Amino acid sequence: MLTVEQLEAFERDGFIKGEVVLNDEEVELLRRELDLVLEGRTEKKPVLNRNLLDKSEYGMSMEANETIVQVVNIWMASDLYLQHAANRTLCEEVAQLAGTDTLRIWHDQIQYKPPVTGGPTKWHQDHPLWPIIKPSELISAWVALDDAVIENGCMWMVPGSHTWGDHQRHLLHGADHMPQHKRPELLPAGVEIKPVPFEIKKGQVGYHHCMTWHGSLPNHSQTKRRAIAVHYMPGNIRFEPVGNHPMSKHIQVQPGELLTGADFPVVYTK
Ligand SMILES: O=C(O)CCC(=O)C(=O)O
């Protein structure tokens, strides 16, 4: 369980580091399972398995040889990843942060930055990229499958930015990989954009709010940077389509209804 200090820090900053939730053996099993999925050797398949930079969703021009392997909903291909999403510590702590008694999986996401050629993940806010669900109260649990450090492309976060509203369309990824705002006059008075590195040890979890500005640097090091993020929906999240998303075709409820269904499984109830 998270301490009062951690809960206060999350409220203030929009992200916190948690504990090491997976031991070396558990990480190794997830790494092997990831290899099977990437090699297409599982019977069931994930929703997406692609180089995120091939046709950047973010409209970014990338160096041609850069790669971010993105797998969306690996839990659909691997029971081990479904078990991971239901990890008791992760779920209890996300429920604490969200103030909810129920959690469903919105979707999960592997981001694997290979050594040397791993590319940058553009600065963004998650919820504006998920235009089919509301309210913006989702929380992600990002667990490192390798030590994630500055050199191999750990995430960076902007403290306090989860309270600044939706700035997604004004966010730029600078040449120095730091965030820039196209129209700073739209930011709340007095706020400062001060990104901080969010280094996470192998097996450790970092939590972030779905409105927190975050991004990650390229991996020019010799080590892999693999991670599994589970984006959790508190019990009040509804289907409110104002755009499209890779998960749209998995939705069977009507607009305005709670986003329930087999492809959005409940992984926690209090
Ligand atoms: O793994 C990364 O570098 C980015 C992941 C991310 O944007 C997220 O989990 O919301």
Q: Care to describe what's here?
A:
The chain is built from 4 helices and 16 strands. It has about 270 residues and is of the alpha+beta class. The chain has one domain: q2cbj1_9rhob like domain (Jelly Rolls), CATH 2.60.120. The two termini are about 15 Å apart. About 40% of the residues are buried. The mean pLDDT is about 95. Bound molecules: 2-oxoglutaric acid (AKG). The site of 2-oxoglutaric acid has 11 residues, from strand 4, strand 7, strand 13 and strand 14.
Number of strands: 16
Structural class: alpha+beta
Q: Give, in order, the helices and strands.
A: HEHEEHHEEEEEEEEEEEEE
Instruction: Give me the CATH architecture, please.
Output: Sandwich
Q: What general outline do the C-alpha atoms trace?
A: globular
Look at the structure and give the mean pLDDT.
Answer: 95
Estimate the helix proportion, in percent. Answer: 10-25%
- Give the low-pLDDT segments: none
* Main pleated sheet: 8 strands, antiparallel
CATH fold description: Jelly Rolls
Bound molecules: 2-oxoglutaric acid
With helices defined by DSSP (H or I, 4 residues minimum), what is the helix count?
A: 4
Q: Radius of gyration over alpha carbons?
A: 17 Å
CATH superfamily: q2cbj1_9rhob like domain
CATH class descriptor name = Mainly Beta
Number of domains: 1
Amino-to-carboxy terminus distance: 13 Å
